[in-house]
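Record pair follows.
FIRST:
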Amino acid sequence: MLQTSDTELKKICSVIDERKVIIPFSQNSFVCKSLNTDKNIAYVDLSNYFEIEEYSLADRIVSVQCGIKIVELQKFLVSKGLWLPVNCCDEQTSLLDLILTGDADPYENVNGGLRRHLLGLSFILPNGQIAKSGGKVVKNVSGYDLTRFLLGSYGYFALPVKAQLRLYDLPPKTLSIGIDSPNFAQLLNIANKIISTRLSLLSLDIVDRKLMSSESIERGVKSDRLRLMVTLFGDESQISKNTTEFRNICKENNLSISNILDRDEQERELRQLTAISSPKNKFAQTNHKEICFIDILCDRQKCGALLQLPDLHSKAFTFRPISSKLRVYLNSSSEQESALDSLNKYSIDEQAPLVVAYNNNEYIRKVARLGNRNKLMEETIFDLKQRLKEKLDPDCLFNPFVDL
């Protein structure tokens, strides 16, 4: 444990001393009706805690305060010829937002996303003390890796305040490609071939075109067009070779491709895709209509069958083939409950275990495991989380609106 003399961290610790429930997001970041009625809540703001404390060009390591905006961090790194392979949905997204949500943006294809780039954390515990996990080198952990455990925990156990990140050389060139088709199975087949061909990928997503506009989903615009969005990276020769292979795969399926060569246009497409797949996405935040979503982790080849379930059929969705992450958008909490029942029945009937995550009126984030799973393993993981919560936060002051 370390005590801090840092002014900003002292402010946060003083808030913790008030014994209020700590929510490590801004008040407008997440919609949860149960939060709106609880007056004993303190929203922690790290926006003034944004310094780059240390970096090494040779070691490809940077130590930063977690309030730093991703856009500002990338600007600094690009000026040094380096890069952190993560994207964000807007200019206000901070490193803390990505760590808390474990948000896997389209760049997760590069070495597994933030989970692989995060080397260490300093974090504030519910007792106001500061602890550390991980470090500044890749292999620096013996025993359980608490850094990875805190990633995606929504501040349930502790509040990350500083991070050590692994960096990479800035890609010399990128190329974004779009393929349109009304047939999900066809696009998934192409995605499978792309994955097996081992092209140099930054992103690979299948998305409903109607999700590319905020107005579309709110107005219920119909669209039978799906798009496979791909971003390649490398030098000129790598891009040329990969594009040729890509064209050959599409030609076999009688589909044409559209290249997006302009860097700014590529960035707009990726940011839009990131906004769709982010837990903080604007579709779930709209004040005009209740939009719910369910995140589903499933076998890649079973995704098509899930999308044919009556409660999911025709709903807007995104699918990330490499990580097998499916997000389905629904129009109300009642639709969400019905879809969860259908998924559970499918999981049991087909003996296909599923992990789902969603938000509702009670939780900012709730994770459920459906179907007949290894009960011993599930109990072990659940018990571990419960013991850690009881050890670090016996009074349940840190974000109790999460069920992991």
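SECOND:
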Amino acid sequence: MALWHRITNYAVALREFVAPTYRPERHYMRGPGPACARRAAFH
């Protein structure tokens, strides 16, 4: 079973390398950052 586990992990890693899946949570922005707040304070 350990060999099968290694093979499946390798296959998943290879697939992710060749055709990465889009995960919105990796690119999610929670709102304006501190630079935006500084710009608003000067206006």
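COMMENT: The chain has a mean pLDDT of 85.
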